[in-house]
Design brief:
By secondary structure, the protein is mainly alpha-helical. The chain is built from 15 helices and 16 strands. It has a two-stranded antiparallel ribbon. Strands 3-4 form a two-stranded antiparallel sheet.
């Protein structure tokens, strides 16, 4: 029998005798293990204790740390943007932001998310929606801070009112920024491309274009986008092209909401009604524009002739009459137009398309206005009358030319 085995058995015998005695004292076996290990190393240099015999917790922790360092020495990286991750699962979640995949969907509004934690945070919006509602006007907000900021609108001072359009604003800085929408002033310019903005916050938002340009790529067509939200919206044009197509005219839409609004043109559904005159509209935005007719508000004024418009977009189009700008050009004949709608109508002359027809005689035209005027032949309507003799005409220029001839 080897000396090591004999020494071990002698010590085990001693320990068992002491433990069986009536004193019941507690013995720490760790010094005994270290003593046996030192004895084996001194007597048998070629003897290596097995893992089951002696394990040092410190050594195991060091080994685990070394293994962890080995794993993180070459962390998995994103092929799209080069970002590194400690775990492959984190990389998989990150890749969903590039390919537009949404594994977790909100059951209330249908919005998709790449991670479950983001979905949980989003659901809180629906849970707290009723709690975050303005008691003054009933408007709801996603965050408590937004509600606090909005409540200042109901308690603001008269000194923070726009002198151009009468709009009330929360504080002086917001009022100053709003005034620039009337004056056209854009004092905040981008150092890289020269584009200017009315507020510093809009400039900061624009700077993301240069800081993180086109990081998200569509795997279907290769088009790149600056933001994940833009990529998600674009991917829908590939995966939802067939279900989001109008069966009446074949027009496609990027979202289900836009398709539903478009279908109201065929169903004649008008869910938004003016409380003043009862006129109904397809879109809520159209109703809001219509309401300005009753208030008479036209805050946007032309600096050339003084004409006022209730929308800035209409003013921009009107100004082209003075500047002579015609940005929309026909590719077939080179004729230019002030408005895109005029170009679309003109293009039907070359294509031969005549989508509008008379229900009584079948006459067709590429302009809706022509059919409206033509219908007066069947109805006998004469809306234009001579102010001198009271004679009625179907066309305005006919009444005008008749009046000039008699004069």
């Amino acid at each position: 029998m080897h000396e090591a085995e004999r020494a071990g058995k002698d010590r085990q015998k001693t320990c068992s005798q002491e433990s069986n005695s009536g004193h019941h004292e507690h013995f720490d076996l760790m010094p005994l293990k270290r003593e046996i290990q030192e004895y084996l190393i001194e007597k048998h240099n070629d003897y290596i204790p097995t893992e089951s015999e002696f394990i040092c917790s410190q050594t195991m922790m060091s080994s685990q740390k070394a293994a962890q360092k080995t794993k993180t020495a070459h962390p998995p990286k994103c092929d799209q943007c080069g970002r590194g991750f400690t775990k492959k699962g984190h990389l998989r979640n990150h890749m969903r932001t590039h390919n537009g995949e949404s594994s977790f969907t909100c059951q209330q509004c249908g919005k998709g998310f790449t991670q479950k934690s983001n979905l949980r945070n989003h659901i809180k919006i629906h849970i707290a929606k009723n709690a975050l509602t303005s008691q003054q006007c009933g408007k709801s907000f996603n965050h408590k801070d937004y509600l606090k900021r909005h409540m200042r609108v109901h308690t603001i001072e008269t000194s923070h009112t726009c002198p151009q359009c009468g709009k009330s604003l929360a504080d002086e800085s917001i009022c100053i920024a709003h005034m620039r929408s009337h004056t056209g002033e854009k004092p905040f310019a981008c150092d890289q491309c020269g584009k200017s903005y009315t507020s510093r916050s809009n400039l900061k938002y624009h700077m993301n274009v240069h800081a993180n340009e086109n990081s998200f790529m569509c795997h279907h067509c290769g088009v790149r986008f600056r933001r994940s939200a833009q990529l998600k919206k674009h991917v829908k044009t590939h995966i939802e092209l067939v279900p989001l197509m109008c069966r009446q005219c074949g027009k496609t839409f990027s979202t289900k909401e836009n398709l539903e609004v478009h279908m109201r043109n065929y169903s004649k559904e008008r869910p938004y009604t003016c409380q003043q005159c009862g006129k109904r509209f397809i879109r809520n935005a159209s109703l809001k524009e219509h309401m300005i007719i009753h208030t008479g508000e036209k805050p946007h004024i032309c600096q050339h002739c003084g004409k006022s418009c209730f929308r800035k977009a209409y003013l921009d189009i009107h100004i082209r009459v003075h500047t002579g700008e015609k940005p929309y050009t026909c590719q077939d004949c080179g004729k230019s137009f002030i408005r895109k709608a005029h170009l679309n109508t003109h293009a039907k002359v070359h294509s031969g398309e005549k989508p509008y027809s008379c229900e009584l005689c079948g006459k067709t035209s590429y302009r809706k206005e022509d059919i409206k005027r033509h219908m007066r032949v069947h109805t006998g309507e004469r809306p234009y009358r001579c102010s001198k003799y009271g004679k009625g005409f179907t066309l305005y220029h006919s009444a005008r030319s008749k009046y000039q001839t008699e004069d």
